[in-house]
Amino acid sequence: MKNFSITLLLCVLLHPFLKAQLYTPSPAAVQKSKALLAKMTLAEKIGQLTLYTTDWGSTGPTIREGYKNDIKSGACGNLFNSHSTAFTRELQKVAVEETRLKIPILFGFDVIHGYKTIFPIPLGEACSWDLAAMEQSAHIAAKEAAAAGLHWTYAPMVDIGRDPRWGRVMEGAGEDTWLGCRIAEARVRGIQGSKLGQTDRLVACVKHFAAYGAATAGRDYNTVDMSERFFREYYLPPYEAAVKAGAASVMTSFNDYDGIPATGNKYLITNILRKEWGFKGFVVTDYTSMNEMVNHGVVADDKAAGELSINAGVDMDMQGSIYQRFLAQSVKEGKATLKLIDDATLRILQIKYDLGLFDDPYKFCDAEREKATLLAPEHRAAAREISRKSIVLLKNDKNVLPLKKNQKIALIGALADNKTELIGNWNGAGNAEDCITLRNGLRDGNVTYVKGCEVDGSDRSGFEAAINAAKQADVVVIAVGEKAMMSGEAASRSDITLPGVQEDLVLELVKTGKPVVVVLMNGRPLAIPAIAENATAILETWWLGTEAGNAIADVLWGDYNPSGKLTMTFPRSVGQVPVFYNYKSTGRPYDPNSKWNSRYIDIVNTPQYPFGYGLSYTTFKYSTPTCDKTTFKQGEKIKVSVTVTNSGSRDGEEVVQLYIHDLVGSVTRPVKELRGFQKIMLKAGESKTIDFTLSNDAFSFYRRNMTRGSERGDFEIMVGGSSEDTQKIKVTMK
Ligand code: NOJ
After folding, report:
1. C-alpha 569 to ligand 1 mean position (Å)
2. CA nearest 247: which of 344, 144, 152?
3. Which atom of ligand 1 lies at the shortest distance from residue 207's CA?
4. What is the number of the ligand 1 atom nearest to the C-alpha of 57?
5. What pLDDT, on the 0 to 100 scale, is given for residue 62?
6. How many CA within 13 A on the CB side of residue 615?
7. DSSP code at position 231
8. Cα–Cα distances in Å, from 257 out to 209, 214, 222, 314, 330?
9. Which pLDDT score, from 0 to 100, does residue 450 have?
């Protein structure tokens, strides 16, 4: 707790110095890149625009082999999925010793929630609402990856996720745009640090630009269609926040936007990203997304796909080999200009210069540093800390939690004794063997372990042993959820209930009359109405990574008082999806007691667990918020205050959330929108008054004429511990 206060204090003190800054190449990098460009052949330039995977952990079809020959000939200037100092050194040597111009390779990798020390999946980590901790975990991930020969990571993923069928919600921050922006900034700061070239940081790559999270029906790679207003208001801001926090590269997305695939979308890449936001880094495609524009049906062949991309503003072709095969020909035919190719080449060279690779191409290949850095004890300690902060207590009847050490525990579930699933999808270079299981985490207790059933499949043969163990115990702890590969890329589900017979087993255990604590391990919000009703307690633990078992045990034993709050709504059934907190009111607002309004006839509209929700082992009471001015001038700042009291008997942290509602707008407005939060620590019985300052930006939106700004009128300001548990006041903007 002391650590928490110190971190908070440091953040407050350092904040002005950490001010977000757009990446701008250094003058030296600009000048040296230009000088180098003057010596390059067209083929060598195109080589710098080419990125291939090596044969490690690729996420799609490898359409071209022989990357080593490509490096030698200068036809490939960038590689991904090659890591470790030994391997990257070997490849770098080819580039800087055997090519004409000795241009170093840029090495990329998906370091999504850790390199060797694996942190919670990003969605889980977001539930900590602890920006300093998220920045720290991103920094540690970068530090380990940079020590293992890497320069560049494909993170942060900032796609807004409102549809839990979409498996990739696990990689983002959840459903809220405002919170998504803050988390995007924190992650960019953590990955990239204050400037490129530090040996404990990587180049960040914001992805997937743009609107990938809105894949129709939650089906990965599906098309996206939405109004410009909706796009700018909800989906676009996190990319902008990440770019303005300094991210030096951006990845396009697989989907189309307004009928044009993102990889060929000039409006997105040139107009918005470069012109509106002033982005000066480089843009890379997603894996063969350039080629896939043929399947989208907007170009007839690969060559035309390359032309569409270069003209849209795409600098680097990931794995498509289109620029390599066709771009020179396109230049000859006048379908791509040399100027476009020069600009793209410069943008990539500048980053290589700013990384310091021209001065020392082996700067990130120090085997000693690699050994000392990976899985360092302090990294594991940080992972345990952020993991326990990411856990969300969803239910705790009769205060069954925390458990007591003298209780006899029946520990059940395949996931309770599994390492592979706990490190989750996109687990970098993490080793399952390094992971602490829940069974191991509970080693100090009086625990009997029985598997009961697998995560999937229909085998019930283990039920009996599990039920017998439950009968002998004081309390049952059962770990259920998904396998790691059931979410992430290419892992959409049409049914988001618990797979297999896991739910049946939980309900059988409930019948024993023993208290049943359900520990969920999963990559997306699940529909668990029967468990929500029947389990005694529920802990959402996501996939917490290397220190999972210790972190969950810390919460189960009460060594850590849970403080996580959901950043993505849990539906009651998949039929409610998409269900999110900041919906707009319709002309016929929901009334469960009458028919002719916006509702279902077979289920209520409210979710199982709303955005912002999460319990603690203590309780918090909120005063009605007050405002220093109940009427204020447009553009004037206002201060909202609330007193929060820890009304229970344990010390605990609370995420105090502030929402606004614009009562009358020139366009329809959501019923509430998050505009601020503070995570505070309160001792048992302690009260604190929290102040929020709201500037004009908090009240701004895309007005009827598509300009962004506020409109005079009445607003409700709501403060509370969850999006559905707030107290409100009304203020008027004059
Ligand atoms: C495809 C994924 O969509 C993207 O997120 C990832 O960075 C690339 N593959 C590279 O692995």
Report:
1. 26
2. 152
3. 5
4. 11
5. 56
6. 17
7. I
8. 10, 10, 11, 16, 25
9. 98
Ligand 1 and 286: CB distance under 6 A: yes
pLDDT under 70: residue ranges of the chain: 1-20, 56-65
207 lines ligand 1 (CB under 6 A): yes
Could you tell which of 79, 106, 110 is best to mutate to test the pocket of ligand 1, judged by most ligand atoms within 8 Å of the CB? Answer: 110
How remote is the C-alpha of 426 from its chain's centroid? Answer: 12
Q: Alpha-carbon distance 699 to 714, whole Å?
A: 11
DSSP per-residue codes, 551-576? HHHHHHHTSS------SSPBPSSGGG
Please say if 286 is a catalytic residue: yes
User: What is d(CA 667, CA 663) in angstroms, rounded to the nearest whole number?
Assistant: 11
Question: β-strand 701-702 against 708-709: which pairing, if any?
Answer: antiparallel
- pLDDT of 137-196, one tens digit each? 999 999 999 999 999 999 999 999 999 999 999 999 999 999 999 999 999 999 999 999
Neighbour tally for 176: CB within 10 Å: 27
pLDDT at position 235 is 98
Residue 435: its pLDDT value, please? 98
Q: What is the pLDDT of residue 66?
A: 75
Pocket of ligand 1 contains residue 554 by CB under 6 Å: no
CB of 110 within 6 A of ligand 1: the answer is yes
Q: Residue 657: in which H helix or E strand, if any? A: strand 652-662
pLDDT for 488: 96
Q: What is the pLDDT of residue 63?
A: 57
Region of residue 149 (phi > 0: left; psi between -120 and 50: alpha; otherwise: beta): left
Q: Is the peptide bond before 402 cis (omega within 30 degrees of 0)?
A: yes
With beta carbons less than 8 A apart as the criterion, state whether 611 and 567 touch: yes
Predicted local distance difference test score (pLDDT) of residue 509: 98
640 SS3 class? strand
Ligand 1 binding pocket mutation candidate from 58, 113, 489 (most atoms within 8 A of CB): 489
SS3 270: helix
Which residue has the CA at smallest separation from atom 3 of ligand 1?
A: 286
DSSP E strands in 123-271: the ranges are 152-153, 205-209, 249-252, 256-257, 260-261
Q: From edge to edge, which strands make up the β-sheet containing 631-632?
A: 631-632, 725-733, 713-722, 652-662, 673-682
Three-state DSSP at 618 gives: coil
CB 679 near ligand 1, within 6 Å:
no
CA distance linking residue 415 with residue 479, whole number of Å: 6
Is the CB of 152 inside a 6 Å radius of any atom of ligand 1?
Answer: no
Counting ligand 1 atoms within 8 A of each CB, the residue from 158, 286, 291, 319 with the most, and so the one to mutate, is 286
Q: Left, alpha or beta for 487 (phi > 0: left; psi -120 to 50: alpha)? A: beta
Q: Which of the following is catalytic: 256, 286, 317, 554? A: 286
Q: What is the pLDDT of residue 68?
A: 83
pLDDT in tens, 664-701: 999 999 999 999 999 999 999 999 999 999 999 999 99
Distance, CA 427 to ligand 1 centroid (Å)? 13
- CA-to-CA distance for 239 and 252, rounded, in angstroms? 11
Strands (E), 323-473: 392-396, 408-412, 446-450
Please tell me the distance between residue 229's alpha carbon and the centre of ligand 1 in angstroms: 28
What pLDDT does residue 1 have? 38
Is 287 a pocket residue for ligand 1 (Cβ < 6 Å)? yes
Contact 473, 446 (CB under 8 A): no
R_g of the chain computed on alpha carbons = 26
Say if pTM beats, i.e. exceeds, 0.90. yes
Tally: H helices and E strands in the chain: 22, 27
Let me know how long the chain is.
734
Token pair in block for residue 225: 């269609």
Please give the Cα distance from 315 to 48 (Å, whole number): 9
pLDDT at residue 67, as a whole number = 79
Widest CA span in the chain: 80
For residues 275 and 284, give the distance between their C-alpha atoms in angstroms, rounded to a whole number: 17
